[in-house]
Structure formats: structure tokens, C-alpha cells
């Protein structure tokens, strides 16, 4: 059984170390055959660095490393001079150290290629490196984490813009050296704008939202079942469930990322960690969500509804710099939201946003409770345990009383007199417990506020502000929100729950529960 390449981003190490490699060289072959400069954005831990590494060994001409892959008998595997830049390596605490770091990267690339860099300015040093390397042949440029210095300062608008200017000055070297270049591949977390870092590189082909490359990074369902079959069987046996049951659970927890609104992929890091530990946990989110995410949520008072209320289009991702973009645009690029479908308006396409899966929904909801509602982490943990236990015993009344207790613990000045505010808050409380809750579930007659599925039961919530619980229950019945869950093969119990919020008391005033 092949090993799991957890945290390994070097293609050669994966192949020579007998690790699993999910063959993505069909996509790579299509890109490098065109010779068009490429830009691709994806969330962290999605395989960007491994893609850079794979390109590196292809252009190094190391054909035997690709023996069992798609590209093996299709590419010439000629060796080209390569410049490989990773901006994870730069210091971003001060502007001086940032510029020095850029220069150091270029100097080290020169040393790796046996070239002495004499220029002392980062921009001119980059020009010198490209020119001198081109004496050996056309140059390949690979850039990883292109905007890391900007993301490090996303909560400092002035500093972010200054660093953007420095990067713009740095990357412009590429534009003027086109005659010396074979191929360019640049990647990062966020898409670039027309006035941003690559404003001078107007020949870059941005494939971030291109349907053809939507599954280039991440694992498809077919890839998961093919490459990880041995691990799937071993894990199912260890957990004492069937292979089919395991696949269903893995899909709920770790699938759901989409970059075109049609095709979906698994987060690679979560899948690898899951097969290694053989238990469901929030691996991707809790493996190093940047500290600025917490400050970003806290500073902007992010609510769930703010993130999913509006559809977005491709232009929304490039009209503003990332520190000025709407929160839903920022989190969609960072991977905390994803495309869950498309709506068409004439020739225009709009993307529907939501959390990709249970892992992200659970973890991000905890973060919102802590950052937005001043709930301490230990209190959130206790809350999650209590909610899970109550729901497992179908103690709905006690569950709602627990929700009331949590709402009462939130400082009064944080509450808002909006029905949608309480929709978002109750959704976030339930989602933070790791429950499979969805908001605004579509039916043919309207939308139920919250739908919670747990074990063999389904709970439909309707939440009203300054009305009454009976009215909420009657709306569920009138609109028949529950009908889509009733079928010959569905033996789940269905409960409808009407909740009324008193805006003066800032909490649940009354509620009704009925079993269908």
C-alpha cells in the first residue's frame, strides 16, 4: 500500500518515496503546450506548491520521474533554465526587510544556477537573473504564493498597498523579458485585479475560474476512489462500517469545494490526514488558519448571512483589491466559502456561495462565535458538547433552552433588531457543534429558515421576530417545507419548530414543536 504524502510538496520525493501521486499531468501538459503565461489561484493546502514542483521537474527534463503519468510519452522533457520563487520565504514585518528578502531570493536563485548577481536592487537583480539565465536557453519562471506579503497585512490597508507597489515593481521585470521566456506559472490564494500586482502583465491567462481547470487541484470523487482504494478499505474496516457508508461520510466532511459552480473536489490535506488518523476531524481549517482571519472576522462583524446572501460573478473577484473586497469575495478565495451552484441572467452567470463542507462549516462557525459574539473558546466547547448530547437524545425543548442561554450570554450591544441576525446566530450556534445544518433550504414554495439533519431525524426551523411561534409553525405547514423530506424510502422522523424572537428582550420568547 502506497504511503500518504502528508505535507510533502516535492514531486520527486513523492515518486521516489513510493507515496500516492494523484496524476494531474494532463492539465499541466495542456498548459505548458500552449506556452501562454498562466495564473491560478486556489486556497491554501490545495496542491499549489506541488504543482509548482511538478512543473519544475518537467522543465528540468527528468522524464523517468513521470513514467506512469499522462505526460510521460507526450512531452519532450528538454531541460530549461528555471527561476523558482516562493514568497513564503520573505520577511514582511518592515518594508526594508521585505525588499532585502526579495533580493536574497534572486541572489539564491542565481547561486543555484551558477550565476553571480551583482545588482543590489531587487528589481534590477531580477532583470539581471533573467537575462543571464537566458544565455543557457529560454527561461521558465515559477512563482508560488505571489501575494503572501499583502495577505500578511490585509488588516493594514496602507501597508498592504505599499507592498503591492513593491511587488508590482518586482514582477514587471517579467513583462519586459518576454523574448527570453519559455513559460510562466504564477499561483497564490487570491485573484489579481487589473490595477494590482500584475497590472503590467496583461498577457497573463487567469484560469482560476476556468471550467476546464476547475478540478486541476484537489481530488475528484473518481480520483479518491481510485488512488486511495486500499486506504478506504482499511479505514472502513478499522471504523467498523461499510465502504459505502465511509465514502458518504468522507464526502460530507471533506468534499464540496468548487471553482466553477459545477464540478467539486476534496481538500487534499484533509483527505490525507483523515486516512492517516482514521477519524473525522477538522484538519484543514485547524492546520493553520492564519491569525489575520480571526481579526478580519472580528473587525468586520461577519455574520453567516453576510457571506451567503448575495450571488457573485467573476468580475466581483477582480474589481477591488483583496483588502477592500466584500467579505464573501475574500472568504471565497481563501476557501472558507465556495461556489454551490450557478444562476443565469441572460448572458450573465452568478455563483451561489456557501460553506464547502461540514469541516469548514463547523470550524468557521466556532470562529465567528468567538470573534463576533465574545464567546470564549472553552464556553463554545462546552456548548457544542451539550447541544450534541441533547440532540442525540431528541430533547428539543432542552436544546432550545440551551440556545437561549447562549444568546443571553452575548453582550446586549452586539445584538441587532433584524430577523436575519437571529437566523445567522442560531445557524452558527448549531453549526459550531458539528451538526449538519443548512440555511434557507430551497423548496418549490419558498425557503425554510433552517434544516437540521441528525441521525434518523430531520428538524425544520422557522424563526420570526416580534410575532409568535404559532405563526412560524403555520408558515411551515402552509408552505409544506417538509414535503421534500417525505418519501417511501425515507423513514426519518420529521419535526417542525417555530421560534419567536423578542427584539426588546434580545432572545427567544416562545417556541412550538410538532412532529409531522
Break the fold down into its secondary structure elements and pairings:
Blueprint lengths: L10 H6 L8 H10 L3 E4 L6 H12 L22 E5 L8 H18 L9 H12 L5 E6 L3 H4 L5 H19 L5 E8 L16 E2 L14 H7 L1 H11 L3 H12 L13 H10 L13 H10 L3 H5 L18 H8 L3 E8 L2 E7 L3 H15 L4 H16 L3 H13 L10 H14 L3 E8 L2 E9 L2 E9 L3 H11 L13 E10 L4 E9 L1
Parallel strand pairs: 1-4, 1-5, 2-3, 3-4, 10-11
Antiparallel strand pairs: 6-7, 8-9, 9-10, 11-12
Brief account:
This protein is α/β, with parallel strands linked by helices. 41% of the residues lie in helices and 16% in strands. The chain starts with 10 loop residues before the first helix and ends with a strand.
What does this molecule look like?
With 516 residues, the protein is α/β, with parallel strands linked by helices. It has 3 domains: 203 residues, Rossmann fold; 154 residues, no CATH class; 141 residues, 3-Layer(aba) Sandwich (Trna Endonuclease, Chain: A, domain 1), CATH 3.40.1350. The chain is 41% helix and 16% strand. The protein contains 19 helices and 12 strands. A 5-stranded parallel beta sheet has the order 2-3-4-1-5, with helices on both faces. It has a 5-stranded mixed beta sheet with strand order 8-9-10-11-12, with helices on both faces. The protein has a two-stranded antiparallel ribbon with strand order 6-7. The radius of gyration is 25 Å and the shape is globular. The relative contact order is 0.08. The mean pLDDT is 91.
Amino acid at each position: 500500500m502506497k504511503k500518504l504524502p502528508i505535507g510533502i510538496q516535492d514531486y520527486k520525493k513523492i515518486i521516489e518515496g513510493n507515496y500516492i501521486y494523484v496524476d494531474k499531468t494532463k492539465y499541466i501538459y495542456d498548459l505548458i503546450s500552449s506556452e501562454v503565461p498562466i495564473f491560478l489561484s486556489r486556497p491554501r493546502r490545495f496542491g499549489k506548491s506541488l504543482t509548482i514542483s511538478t512543473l519544475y521537474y518537467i522543465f528540468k527534463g527528468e522524464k523517468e520521474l513521470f513514467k506512469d503519468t499522462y505526460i510521460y510519452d507526450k512531452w519532450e522533457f528538454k531541460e530549461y533554465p528555471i527561476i523558482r520563487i516562493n514568497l513564503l520565504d520573505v520577511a514582511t514585518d518592515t518594508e526594508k526587510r521585505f525588499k532585502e528578502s526579495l533580493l536574497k531570493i534572486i541572489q539564491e536563485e542565481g547561486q543555484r544556477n551558477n550565476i553571480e548577481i551583482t545588482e543590489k536592487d531587487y528589481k534590477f537583480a531580477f532583470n539581471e537573473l533573467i537575462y543571464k539565465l537566458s544565455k543557457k536557453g529560454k527561461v521558465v519562471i515559477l512563482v508560488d504564493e505571489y501575494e503572501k506579503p499583502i495577505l500578511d497585512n490585509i488588516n493594514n490597508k496602507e501597508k498592504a498597498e505599499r507592498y503591492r507597489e513593491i511587488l508590482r515593481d518586482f514582477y514587471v521585470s517579467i513583462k519586459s523579458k518576454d523574448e527570453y521566456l519559455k513559460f510562466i506559472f504564477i499561483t497564490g490564494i487570491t485573484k489579481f485585479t487589473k490595477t494590482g500586482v500584475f497590472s503590467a502583465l496583461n498577457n497573463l491567462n487567469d484560469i482560476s475560474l476556468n471550467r476546464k481547470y476547475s478540478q486541476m487541484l484537489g481530488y475528484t470523487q473518481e480520483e479518491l476512489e481510485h488512488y486511495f482504494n486500499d486506504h478506504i478499505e482499511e479505514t472502513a474496516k478499522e471504523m467498523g462500517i461499510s465502504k459505502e457508508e465511509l465514502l458518504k461520510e468522507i464526502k460530507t466532511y471533506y468534499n464540496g469545494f468548487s471553482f466553477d459552480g459545477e464540478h467539486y473536489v476534496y481538500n487534499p490535506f484533509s483527505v490525507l490526514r483523515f486516512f492517516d488518523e482514521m477519524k473525522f476531524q477538522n484538519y484543514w481549517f485547524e492546520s493553520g488558519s492564519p491569525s489575520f482571519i480571526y481579526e478580519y472576522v472580528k473587525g468586520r462583524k461577519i455574520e453567516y448571512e453576510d457571506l451567503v446572501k448575495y450571488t457573485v460573478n467573476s468580475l466581483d473577484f477582480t474589481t477591488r483589491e483583496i483588502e477592500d473586497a466584500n467579505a464573501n469575495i475574500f472568504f471565497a478565495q481563501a476557501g472558507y466559502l465556495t461556489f454551490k451552484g450557478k444562476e443565469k441572467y441572460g448572458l450573465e452567470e452568478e455563483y451561489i456561495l456557501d460553506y464547502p463542507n461540514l469541516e469548514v462549516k463547523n470550524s468557521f462557525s466556532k470562529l465567528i462565535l468567538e470573534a463576533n459574539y465574545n464567546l470564549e473558546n472553552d464556553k463554545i466547547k462546552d456548548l457544542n458538547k451539550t447541544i450534541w448530547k441533547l440532540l442525540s437524545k431528541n430533547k428539543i425543548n432542552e436544546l432550545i433552552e440551551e440556545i437561549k442561554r447562549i444568546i443571553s450570554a452575548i453582550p446586549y450591544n452586539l445584538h441587532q433588531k433584524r430577523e436575519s441576525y437571529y437566523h445567522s446566530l442560531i445557524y452558527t450556534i448549531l453549526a459550531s457543534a458539528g451538526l449538519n445544518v443548512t440555511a434557507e433550504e430551497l423548496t418549490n414554495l419558498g425557503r425554510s429558515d433552517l434544516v437540521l439533519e441528525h441521525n434518523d431525524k430531520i428538524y425544520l426551523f422557522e424563526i420570526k421576530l416580534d410575532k409568535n411561534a404559532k405563526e412560524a409553525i403555520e408558515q411551515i405547514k402552509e408552505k409544506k417545507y417538509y414535503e421534500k423530506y417525505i418519501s417511501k424510502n425515507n423513514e426519518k422522523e420529521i419535526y417542525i419548530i417555530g421560534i419567536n424572537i423578542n427584539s426588546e428582550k434580545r432572545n427567544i420568547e416562545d417556541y412550538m414543536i410538532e412532529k409531522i
